Every structure is written in structure tokens, then in C-alpha cells.
Amino acid sequence: MFLNPTYIISKQLLEIAKIGVKKAIENDETTATNWINQQLDRQDACPTMILFKLSTL
Prior knowledge:
Helices cover 72% and strands 0% of the residues.
């Protein structure tokens, strides 16, 4: 079975975003932003992920 790379990236981003929002609610925005950026850094093998880095917003 072939999984569309866009689908996989979307699912990864959605999961990172959901956990990031939870961390922002439970802790603070800075902690959540740092965690999200760490997760996206781990995905740097995929150029699409770089576009979503929060630090560039």
C-alpha cells in the first residue's frame, strides 16, 4: 500500500500541533513553541517541514 507523502506530513504536523496546543494550555506558550520547534527540527529531512518552522513566522 502506498501512502501519499503529503498525507504523512499532514498527519505528523497535525499531531505536533495538537500536542503543542496541549502544552501551551498546561504550561505556557514559550514552552510549547520550543517543543514544537524541536519536533520540527527532527523532521528536517523533509524540506516541507522547514516551511512550517514557527520561528520563521
